[in-house]
């Protein structure tokens, strides 16, 4: 079998739309499998020794932040990480994102910059001024491409296929960036996939995304998900995101919608034994803790996929 080309080398990764072929997914997943073997067997693997990764987060994060920091360090890179750029950097004084990125380029000589920022266009803005490749760790309400990759890797690890999948996405589909990125990825790399979007009308999937996805896979929109449980391969739950309601002055609406959907043990019992339940986390009540011990609960295994995928992506961007 011919060697698959590394198309990520020395490139920024800011949008899932940069994935244009199944071979790119295959390349990353094989590398992620290698990273899994390295971690699980306690091996030392440091292809990024001498490199430096700057990790700049303007928004709260546990999973994405710690997995990127750990991924870079496990690969042997130096790391400069700032969690709370909005409070503890010159952004407090009014410094623009462009100037902050230029500053980090100069003060750290970074080989790559990982950025999480509340503005939808933040990663594109950073890429336009950065000397080093930029990796999108979450941009506003728009995209979270590395989350989509780890989600897809979790699905592939379970089913060993990326087509003929029935995926049910539930919750905040308006503000949630993870579901948007994963839906685009499923549309790009799989055949005969079906996505059922379940949300209150106030949190419905943007129509522009529905139109784009409908060209490549089957889309169904609902306001309840009980009827979809029996046939779901993947149930992807999301929280209603309070921070965006706060920003728009709609906290009363948030209180009405925050626990619109709650997954219980009884509901899970209706699902196929082979199905899985995913969630980008954190959860705020939409999955009862009683579900955690069910073998279909994959949301904690899903997090470990993030370490392997981010290790794979960092190595791919920083080594030919």
Characterization of the model:
The protein is an alpha/beta fold and 320 residues long. It folds into 2 domains: 46-143, Rossmann fold (3-Layer(aba) Sandwich), CATH 3.40.50.1370; 145-303, Aspartate/ornithine carbamoyltransferase (Rossmann fold, 3-Layer(aba) Sandwich), CATH 3.40.50. The protein contains 12 helices and 9 strands. The strands form 2 sheets. A 5-stranded parallel β-sheet has the order 7-6-5-8-9. The chain has a 4-stranded parallel β-sheet with strand order 2-1-3-4, sandwiched between helices. β1, α2 (63-74) and β2 (78-83) form a beta-alpha-beta unit.
Mean pLDDT: 93
Structure summary, number of beta strands:
9
- Rg estimate, integer Å: 19 Å
Q: Which strand order do you get reading across the main beta sheet?
A: 7-6-5-8-9
DSSP helical segment count: 12
Strand content: 5-15%
* Tally of domains: 2
Following the backbone from N to C, one meets helices and strands in this order, namely HEHEHHEHEHEHEHEEHHHEH
Q: Share of helix among residues?
A: 25-40%
Structural class: alpha/beta
Unreliable residue runs = none
């Amino acid at each position: 079998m011919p060697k698959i080309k590394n198309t990520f080398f020395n490139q920024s990764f800011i949008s899932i739309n940069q994935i244009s072929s199944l071979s790119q997914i295959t390349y990353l997943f094989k590398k992620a499998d290698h990273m899994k073997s390295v971690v699980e067997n306690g091996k030392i693997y440091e292809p990024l020794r001498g490199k430096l990764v700057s990790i700049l987060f303007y928004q709260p994060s546990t999973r994405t932040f710690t997995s990127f920091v750990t991924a870079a360090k496990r690969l042997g890179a130096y790391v400069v990480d700032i969690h709370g750029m909005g409070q503890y950097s010159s952004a407090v004084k009014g410094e623009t994102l462009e100037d902050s990125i230029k500053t980090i380029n100069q003060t750290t000589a970074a080989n790559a910059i990982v950025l999480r920022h509340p503005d939808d266009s933040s990663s594109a803005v950073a890429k336009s001024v950065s000397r080093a490749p930029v990796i999108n760790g979450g941009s506003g309400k728009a995209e979270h491409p590395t989350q989509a990759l780890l989600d897809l890797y979790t699905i592939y690890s379970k089913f060993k296929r990326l087509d003929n999948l029935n995926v049910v996405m539930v919750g905040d589909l308006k503000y949630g960036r993870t579901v948007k990125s994963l839906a685009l990825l499923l549309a790009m790399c799989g055949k005969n996939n079906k996505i059922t979007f379940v949300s209150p009308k106030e949190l419905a999937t943007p129509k522009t995304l529905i139109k784009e996805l409908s060209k490549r896979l089957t889309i169904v929109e609902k306001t309840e998900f009980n009827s979809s449980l029996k046939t779901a391969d993947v149930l992807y739950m999301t929280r209603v995101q309070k921070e965006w309601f706060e920003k728009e002055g709609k906290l009363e609406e948030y209180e009405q919608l925050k626990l619109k959907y709650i997954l219980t043990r009884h509901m899970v019992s209706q699902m196929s034994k082979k199905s899985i339940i995913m969630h980008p986390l954190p959860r705020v009540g939409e999955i009862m803790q009683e579900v955690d011990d069910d073998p279909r609960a994959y949301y904690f295994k899903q997090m470990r996929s993030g370490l392997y995928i981010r290790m794979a992506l960092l190595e791919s961007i920083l080594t030919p």
